[in-house]
Amino acid sequence: MESIEHILENEILPKVTKPLRYVGNEHNSVKKNWEEVKLRFLFAFPDLYEVGMSHLGLRILYHLVNEKSEYLMERVFAPWTDLEAILRQENIPLFSLESWRPLTDFDCIGFTLQYEMSYTNILNMLDLGKIPLKTKERDETYPLIIAGGPCAGNPEPLAEFIDVFVIGEGEEVILEMLDVIARHHEVFGKNKEKNKLLDTLASLEGLYVPSLHQIMHKEKRIVKRVVKDLDESYFPLKPIVPYMEIVHDRIMLELFRGCTRGCRFCQAGMIYRPVRERSGDVLKEQARQLVKNTGYNEISLTSLSTSDYSGIAELTKSLLDAYEKQQIGLSLPSLRVDSFSVDLAQQVQRVRKTGLTFAPEAGTQRLRDVINKNVTEENLLEVAEAAFYAGWTHLKLYFMIGLPTETMEDIEGIAELAYRVLRRGIEINKEKKRSKQPKITVSVSSFVPKAHTPFQWQAQDSIELLMEKQQYLKKRLKDKRISYNYHEAKLSFLEAVFARGGSELSDVLLAAWKEGCKFDSWTEHFCFDKWLKAFAEAGVDPMKIANEPGDIDTVLPWEHIDYGVSKRYLWEEREKAYGMKTTSDCRYGKCWDCGVCPGLDVKLSIKNKKGGGECGNQN
Q: Is the pLDDT of residue 612 over 50?
């Protein structure tokens, strides 16, 4: 009988559009002897290879586990439709990249939950792997199905499909979890006493086992796991280098985690608190090793708000001085309007020119105060002017529509602000006698209320109202020097449903997958009518979930999940939003008692602040 490897190499991969998605064997990938390890873990990313391989969390966990001799971790990604069709036709199970083994050969499969609209891909991957979808349908012969990531903040829509959810930062808990599973196998044997194993896992901090929680732990809150010191935490210095181009094809240096700016719509800013910085010396050594081990020609300085890193100027200069002669450039994503330094951006251009992107989020100061953006129109115009003077001719502006209390005046404010920036660019170009016309790209997304944010109780605008606002802007932004992009309102509506809904959505997911829903975030695959049919079949009203507000007494589906920020604080922030009152960043002044630092026993940490040491503002 032919091996799966021979069949794939000779009969299947030549027939698909991008076979490099599936071959493995990339530089720095790890292949282990299966007979020499105690436990076999499969990291599953429910999207394409080029999306998943851009995910820093995958890089960290993959190498963290594989550096332990007793464990292995391999990878699997959602196959594109061409390969899926062949796998189903030939009755070949979905396989891992490293060993080309079927999913059922692994002890554990861990899905990362980065985006609600990838949930149908999870079901599709399980089915392609010949694994029953619901936990109650899987006996002890099947792998343990685990999930973690930001969307685990509301795990309930997936609770019928996932055995164990990881709440918080995965590298803090994954080895503990694997130790428990390995010990269980040694005592009871592999594929035995699954309920006992789940009960032991449920006792670990940061792990949520839905099947047991419903029976035994109804009142238990699952507290997130958090890395307390990034300098001491694991970071891979020999990451996998793909053969093909991926979305973020570069070195990634993680400057810090967390954000205390307090934007009221932002889930990441709440669930990744507190701020924990890496020291400049550690980052420079990581850069040196990564340059040597990867061959990349760009270093991306990543975080939720890169220019808020306390040592950003010194670090940028140091890295450019070290690698400019090798033509290794820097990129600074996530720049904020009020912390942006044109001088800093100009330094980055020493190697190659990069674009500039700013996120005012709202078109009026009133609405920016509501969402606690803490930037002004003057901030934006000042940095835009400085950027035009420095030679940039193309700026990107990100906005959000459908925010709480928004009126059509706020929508008009987006158009007016874009035109003001454009006019300033035209004036400066004339002054500088430049022939190239300035260009502005306006990108607009729709507000989605997310769990663990001050706006988690907020209703989303109806699809019709979101579309009306989108079309208004389309008519207003007619200048050929302005490009206008916006997100599909129906997709944002579904995102809100799965961000706010509970376990009733399990049946919806299953029905939608049976209708053929997958790769829902890809325009060519998204079919809203199929989703509406699935909701009707499951007897669930999606508008009741997405478009109706809650209040302080509303029992939210994620009440048992604790990221450290108190419900009281979130409600107070919501009330301040409606009063148009802002909250300052606790890194630089008053502690607002959000609950994170004392609740998680971890302090706000700013390693590179002048004077050195750590900074904690908690009372």
A: no
In 3D, which of 419, 414, 422 has the Cα closest to residue 444?
A: 414
Helix (H/G/I), strand (E/B), else coil: 80: coil
User: Which pTM was predicted?
Assistant: 0.95
CATH code for residues 355-504+540-583: 3.30.750.200
* Confidence check: pLDDT of 356 > 60: yes
Provide the pLDDT for residue 36: 96
Residues in the chain: 619
Give the CATH number of domain 4-223. Answer: 3.40.50.280
pLDDT at 447: 98
Residue % of the chain over a pLDDT of 90:
82
When computed from its CA atoms, the radius of gyration of the chain, rounded to whole angstroms, is: 25
For residues 129 and 321, give the distance between their C-alpha atoms in angstroms, rounded to a whole number. 49
Q: How far apart are CA 136 and CA 125, in angstroms?
A: 18
Q: Which of these, 406, 507, 399, 404, lies nearest to 450 by C-alpha position?
A: 404
Say how far residue 431 (Cα) sits from the centre of its chain. Answer: 42
Q: Which helix (H) or strand (E) holds 66?
A: helix 56-66
Domain boundaries, the chain: 4-223, 355-504+540-583
Q: Which amino acid appears at position 86 of this protein?
A: I
Give me the residues paired with residue 36 across strands: none
What is the C-alpha to C-alpha distance for residues 115 and 495, in angstroms, rounded to an integer? Answer: 8
3 state DSSP class of 395? strand
Is residue 215 pLDDT above 60, yes or no? Answer: no
Collapsing DSSP states into helix, strand and coil, what is residue 253? strand
570: burial class by Cβ within 10 Å (0-12, 13-18, 19+)? buried
Structure tokens at 439: 């260009």
Residue whose C-alpha is closest to residue 150's, from 446, 545, 491, 558? 558
Is the per-residue pLDDT at 614 higher than 50?
A: no
197 close to 144: Cβ distance less than 8 angstroms: yes
